[in-house]
Amino acid sequence: MTPLKRFMADKGEAYSRIDTERIKRLWAQKHDRFHLAPIIHLVGTNGKGSTGRMLAEFLHQQGLRVGHYSSPHLLRFNERFWLEGADATDEALEQAHHDLSDRIGSQWAQALSYFEYATLLAAVLFESCEAVVMEAGLGGEFDATTIFEARLLLITPIDYDHQPFLGHSIEAIATTKLRAMRCETLLATQPYAQTNTIAETIAHQRGLTLQYAETIAPKRALLSREEEPAFWGINRQLAFAAARWLGFNPSLESFKQPPLPGRLQRIGPNLWIDVGHNRAAAEAIVAFFKGRSIHIIYNSFQDKEYESIIALLSLITKTLLYLPIASPRAASAEEIERACSQNGVEFGHFKSLQPDQNYLVFGSFKTVEAFLKGVDAR
Question: What are phi and psi of 367, to 5 degrees?
Fold first, then answer.
């Protein structure tokens, strides 16, 4: 393990309370030590990573030096930092870690959260980039990524997630996310009409230009292709609209390949993986696998709506196979089994894949990570 990764492991990814002012205090003191181009910022519930990577790959193909910051990672911390077509190397990350520590000092370096420190690492790594794409972590208004000047904000579909932090209504969640608006904004097709109304109100109050991706990108961008989930069309349409806004004339073929692992990705003849973890992701899963027979290898964090997610999954499976994950936030086998029983889903423990059966690994990044790292899973 490199010094940076030991340093990050000591911080830990888990959170129970968020200090929304800490990174703002640091930035007020140290911002003149950073030299990052205005970012293309992504806020929303689902689709931020995929949309951002599609756009970053397109800009890279146009000859620009591009950085893309996303989270969380699946297998390696390096995945969060995509620079000129590849994940950042250990050497590049170590140098950024050294530079960042010098710029902010050891006291600040220790005080920052896992995500805050990773965000500033990205700012150091991407200083030579002509285009920087950054996705928010949790929320929008108070997210660490909002400290950077933005040239364009992309709003992916907003849905229910992280309710203890963001609120228990779609109005509260959307308001918190949309208060990140501080520049020209492109809004993806939304599942709730309230989101459009709130976005228009904030744009009017702040004197900002708000455009809908569907007015810039062709409708055919939303058409599903073979073995492609419907939400890919929404991601593609937003990435296409952003490329148009930036002055390019892209083709839809520029945005056809799944650019990030674990987004309803087929990794074998009878095996898919998906890092989704909320109701919106489960609804997309159900729509994609409708009419098929599939076993779901599953686990969830306790603070997620796993009961209602399992109720949705019951529409496409009769068998749910529990996979342990190494996290203090993980739901127990007893909790998952109880939710299965309430929804008429057969519960079991995952042991191995059978060649004549179809499987989906689903529930969180940690679930997919545990499966991919498991000796018996492959």
Answer: -65, -50
Please choose, from the candidates 197, 196, 278, the residue with its C-alpha nearest in 3D space to the C-alpha of residue 231.
Answer: 278
For residues 242 and 61, the answer to whether their CB atoms sit within 8 Å is no
| Strands ordered across the beta sheet of 39-43 | 86-87, 81-83, 66-69, 131-135, 39-43, 150-155, 185-187, 210-212
Tens of pLDDT, residue by residue over 77-114, are: 999 999 999 999 999 999 999 999 999 999 999 999 99
Distance CA 343, CA 128 (A): 53
Q: What residue spans in the chain does CATH classification 3.90.190.20 cover? A: 265-373
Angle at the Cα of 284 from the Cα atoms of 281 and 286, rounded to 5 degrees: 110
Tokens of 238: 């937003």
Closest CA to 340 of 364, 318, 357, 370: 318
- Taking each helix axis as running N to C, give the angle between helix 3-11 and helix 114-125, from 0 to 180 degrees, rounded to the nearest 10: 150
Q: Where in the chain is the domain with CATH 3.40.1190.10?
A: 3-255
**In terms of Cα–Cα distance, which of 265, 328, 338 is closest to 306?**
338
If phi over 0 gives left and psi between -120 and 50 gives alpha, with beta otherwise, what is residue 363? Answer: left
Q: What is the CATH number of domain 265-373?
A: 3.90.190.20
> Class of 3-255 per CATH?
alpha beta
Q: Is 85 exposed, middle or buried (0-12, 13-18, 19+ CB in 10 A)?
A: exposed
pTM of the predicted model as reported, rounded to 2 decimal places = 0.94
Reading the block at residue 58, the tokens are 């397109």
Q: For the chain, first and last CA: distance in Å? A: 25
How confident is residue 376, by pLDDT bands cut at 50, 70 and 90? very low
Assign 375 a pLDDT band (cuts: 50, 70, 90): very low
Residue 162: pLDDT over 80:
no
